[in-house]
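Illustration 12: EamA family transporter.
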Amino acid sequence: MAADPTEEPATEVPIPPDLAPATAPRGSVPASLAPQDNVLGGILLILGAVTLFSCSDAVSKHLRGTLPSGEIVWIRYLVFVAMTLALLGRNRFRGLHARRPGLQLLRGLCVLTSSVLFVIGLGYLPLAEATAINYVAPTFITLLSIPVLGEVVGPRRWIALLVGFVGVLIVVQPGGGTFQWAAVLPLLTAAAWAGAVVITRRIGVADHPGTTMFWTACTGFVALTLFLPFDFRMPTGWELGLGLLHGVLGSAGQMLVVQAYRQAPASVLAPFSYGQIVTSAFVGYVVFGAFPGQAMLLGSGVIIASGLYTAHRERLRARERRGEAG
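Figure caption equivalent — predicted structure in token form:
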């Protein structure tokens, strides 16, 4: 649920407007609105955010043992909608009209699909493993950017993508005795999330970030509400409280990410966003007694290396485009 490290906000400050399970889709505001860089403050905020995300995921994993996945995500979206309306209310609910409603609707469905699949996966996989696999999202973002955005991928980036998939294979160990079919769920989560990011790029500046946040929240909430009666179990007061805590922790994490990217550049914060793999491993061990194995640790390192190199190439391409425009 940390910020996506593959987008370079050279002229924009990224703002994550929703509650994705791992890396968060985001809009942007002009860089002129950002204060002077405060690198240490930005790093501390990112580390705080990924810690909250890991705790939120741990609550979700705990609830997965007693409540249906869709119901857990519905409670989370309930908090999301309340937070969105509160933020928009401060601006007198401006920006509710979308210039590209079809793309906004599709983006909201991608975010919803990503959220539901991740929660389902947490019911079968250790928290750290699910988080690590989900961090292959930058690879899917690059792949989708080719047909959707017309981007050209060079040989070095192709190699980085392959390395990322190798890291996933190390983690899931297909053909081995520890392989679980549920390992596919975080992969599908990453793919759905990548679709949301690419659509966000496609929308560009056509819609305000607040508009994107509103449409994402309402799309997911309405869709989940329609299906809720088909897979619903009346939660106890304790379960409802945990569900609300799940949403609050995720929302608070997103707010910290917003502030972090106002304090420091994405190129500085990207490595620290991968700290969620570490915090998830720690929280998973403390709460569930699941200690990461050697394969998970090695595969996570490979995935992180691939993601950081992909982010590096993205930054170089962004600088080249700015040079040509200048």
